[in-house]
Amino acid sequence: MAGLASQIYGTQMVEHFDRLGRAGMDVPMVRKLLGNDDLTARWVARLKQEPEFRLVHGIYVRNTEILPIYDAECVANNVDVRKFWWEGSPDPLDYTDDPGDVVILDRCFGSLEQEQQIVWSWVARQQQKSWWWPEFKTDAEHFFLRGKTEYPSWRQRWVRFSRTANYGLSPESVLTDERPMPGREILAMLAQHPEVARRMDGSEEHPYLWMAGLECRVPGYERRLVPSTWFYAGDSKLDVNAYDRGRAAPAYAVPEFLGK
To answer: For residues 209 and 230, what is the distance between their CA atoms, to the nearest angstrom?
Structure first.
């Protein structure tokens, strides 16, 4: 790989030092930084902790950082991370060039209800405001994986899916018995990549989302409903609701899994 100096133009360096000056750095500070490898390394390490340096496509936390972040969340909830077993390779999947494609670490817990409680708490903590429809219960009698899928306790795997797929379509129009769709994984995405929630505006680039891999039973409705999530920018609030699977919502997408 070519050296960094050969990839930066002289005018860019001049502009950079002018910017440092405007930020309060003076000549003695610059000379100390340029003459000290250890100080420079520590400075760069701190820069890498800034959100702008940690995000992919300006939205996603880097895949190599997700595992330790998720481990810490599990430990905080008294979950022994040694219980998890890998389905597939433990190596993170790469991001694609499409900013609509997301990579997450998909973890199942002892039950779907336990997973929802841990992951939703994580999601809500990272947003200014959040709301989960009170009629949408998450116990085993009301909250399900779609179809006859069994919950694979303590499985963990890397998955990639498109959060912008099937924009404007209803879940019912794209669901088939043979086609698994993200559901639980949408909540995991909102936890691991909180910027996704804050960018949701109903556009094709940042749509609201159906969780088509999940179903819930709500009193007063004949059919099971499909959970969905959207972000109300005016109130900085993330909402989770549920609607009939046949509802076509122009501002919503039905995310779908992508191949390895």
So the answer is: 7
How far apart are alpha carbons 15 and 26 in whole angstroms? Answer: 15
Rounded Cα–Cα distance for residues 189 and 60 (Å): 9
Find the DSSP H helices in 23-163.
27-34, 37-47, 51-54, 63-76, 112-125
- Reported as a single tens digit per residue, the pLDDT across 13-61 is 888 888 888 989 898 888 888 888 898 888 877 877 776 677 899 899 9
Structure tokens at 157: 């795997």
Widest CA span of the chain, in angstroms?
Answer: 73
At 244 the three-state DSSP class reads strand
* Single-letter amino acid, residue 224: R
Burial class of residue 70 (count of CB atoms within 10 Å of its CB; 0-12, 13-18, 19+): buried
Q: What are phi and psi of 180, to 5 degrees?
A: -70, 145
Higher pLDDT, residue 221 or 13: 221
Pull the structure tokens for residue 8: 């930066």
Query: In whole angstroms, what separates CA 86 from the centre of its chain?
Result: 20
CB 152 within 8 A of CB 184: no
Question: 250: which 2 tokens?
Answer: 């122009």
141 beta partners = none
Q: 3-state class of 221 per DSSP?
A: coil
Neighbours of 188 (CB within 10 A): 23
- Contact between 85 and 155 under an 8 Å Cβ cutoff? The reply is yes
